[in-house]
Amino acid sequence: MPVRLALPEVDAIGPFKRLSASQVNAYTTCPRLWYYEKVRRFKMPQIPVLFVGRAVEEAFCRMLQESPALLMANASPETLSHVPLDPNGVPSRDANAAWPADRLLTLPHEMWPTELEGLRQWAQERLSIHLPVALEAMKLEWEKDERRSGQWSSVNPQRCLDMCLKGLEMHLAEVQRCFDANGGPNLEAWRKGIRPKWPAPDGRSYNLALRHPLAQDGPASWIEAWEISRPWFVDPNAGKFSMNAIHPEHWFQGEYDLVYRWDDSINIVDLKASVGAGDRSGNYVEQLRMYAMLWWVTHDRKETVDKLEIWYLGADAIKQIDVPTLDEMKAMEAELNSLWHQLKGETPTMEDCPPNPSPMRGFSPGGVPAKAPETLRCTTCDWKAVCPGGDGLDSQLKGGSVRLPGSTASYDLTAIEELEPRMTLIAEVFSVTGGGDGQRPRIKVVQDGLFAQVQLLVDTHQDGEPAWPQGLLKGDRVKLDGVVPSANYKGELQLKVDPHAIVVHAGKDEHVEATLLDFRARWNVTGQLVYRFEKKGVGRNGKSWHRKGMMLMDATGSMKVEGWAADWGPQYDLAEVGDTMVAANISLDAWAIDVKGQINRNSKIQITERVERVD
To answer: Which residue among 78, 355, 418, 570 is the one 20 to 30 A from 466 at the CA level?
Structure first.
């Protein structure tokens, strides 16, 4: 069972507070690195190679999902893309849902491959069709990313295809093993249409009422070997992070790449679109060992993994990882649980996470251990300019006041952790329009003669409750809990409802002191510049748009400040990482736990202190 979903009725932790292998590896690499990225929410530069790996994996899995008995080699890449999903993005278990492969007629038997080479040629063509689509999708995602870095022209499509083809050969070795084993121990069960709770994604429903449409008689055919040996993987059509394996106590989660299990042994495979010659290869080993522990605990501690492998597609190499023993898994679970309490039970402070990096590790292609480089980890860290382990300083600003050039007024500065982007108040519904047929209604509320539009950006609150009450009527008295107030370009007040806000009917005697007059429209903050970012695009009206932003950090927290490019002024372009900046007269926005500043033409951006730099 490669998937174990959360049980909402007993999950007191939630998806945002679980530990993962990547977080464990980040903390082990350097506690301060983990703190910057998971607490301060710094985002490292997004270079194309990070997206290329995802494109290679998607193309590979879409090829695995398909069958040469159903699709011609030149079929559309969209043929199996319309998999029915539930509201959480998980392939639906609704018995009436329409699955794409169930609606396809099998190809004539004379068109089915009857040898391994036929399977190879079909799969190679499918990869050549899927990869360009996946690369283009990743290119568009990269282009939209505010932290994109590098040039997409550095991506070599042929090299990406070569990695896919190397992965295909590794998979075909499993197909060959399955064929040689006459379909393995589950051939007859597969022929009868018996499927595991989480079958390998093949575009079919979870349950087959009759014999499998591709089943044959006699010895296993090559088509049957292809179908039976297909590993489990995350359905490419499923929602992101929707098919995790979650610890029974909900504090740890992971997502396997491939799980081979056709011969009743469990082999977890980690796909890597790289040569495996860097420090990160050590992280991959630890990740797979954690996945072995996760498989064991999610199977009532009765079933263990038989093999762990890393497929380095860039090196055409398979690295075998030692499976941890029961004692090692018990110790690992206890250590990870202790780490969860340390990192997630209460949010640690920066002082709790010192810049204490682990030594660099050396690996040659294929993840083979080699002599460690003499380079210090801090010299290659994305955050060395602001971290005291690199070129940064331990001391940070915390609010205060400042007088800016060209202004006679003194600006009171608010510490980032003290910013209040939300408010709770009681008001009366003035109007409700629209809604129904899955549409969100437009709600206007009034309080003591002041009006505000309610922006419903979600359907449900983080605790699973509806974001607004059904059947809301004019004159109803409502409590707007945790809404994010803002003023639009017309000066109209808006109250945003995100996953941390909710609209409910107010009790007859319920009272809240806050009023719409308490809305604070402008704030002043200061902090060290961590990085700048830009976003560009074309709107629905065909006009280009351009926004700029920066990440600021003070002694108490960090926040993004962003706005239209024309509103920033020359100080934005003059600023360098590590400089102390003031952003005055900005408004606040929020989404879940993230607080964000918004500048406009009346805001003022100023460098107040520059860091020393060596020419």
So the answer is: 418
**Nearest 5°: phi and psi at 589?**
-135, 165
Burial 492-511 (b: 16+ CB within 10 A, else e): ebebbbbbbbbbbebeeeee
Indicate the number of domains in the chain: 4
Across the range 553-562, mean pLDDT stands at: 94
d(CA 298, CA 288): 15
Q: What is the pLDDT of residues 152-174, one digit of tens each?
A: 999 999 999 999 999 999 999 99
pLDDT digits (tens, 9 = 90+) for 79-117: 999 999 998 899 999 988 999 999 999 999 999 999 999
Question: d(Cα 286, Cα 282) in Å, to the nearest integer?
Answer: 7
Q: Which residue has the tokens 């331990």?
A: 394
345 or 297, which is more confident?
297
> Residue 414 in contact with residue 396, Cβ under 8 Å?
no
Please say whether the dihedral angle defined by the alpha carbons of residues 53, 56, 59 and 65, taken in this order, is positive or negative.
negative
Give the residue numbers spanning the domain of 90: 45-236
Burial class (CB in 10 A: 0-12, 13-18, 19+), 214: buried
Rounded Cα gap, residues 136 and 155, in angstroms: 11
Q: Considering the domain boundaries, does residue 394 fall inside one?
A: no
How is residue 38 annotated by DSSP?
Answer: I
Asked if residue 268 lies in contact with residue 292, where contact means CB atoms within 8 angstroms, the answer is: yes
Residue 395 lies in a domain: no
CA 128/CA 112 separation, integer angstroms: 20
Strand runs labelled E in 16-167: 19-20
Beta strands in 360-501 (DSSP E): 362-364, 368-370, 400-403, 410-413, 423-436, 439-447, 450-456, 477-487, 493-497
As a whole number of angstroms, the distance between CA 557 and CA 417 comes to 6
**Do both 447 and 504 map to the same domain?**
yes
306 & 448 share domain: no
Query: Quick one: pLDDT at residue 614?
Result: 58
Tokens (6 digits) for 14: 């939630």
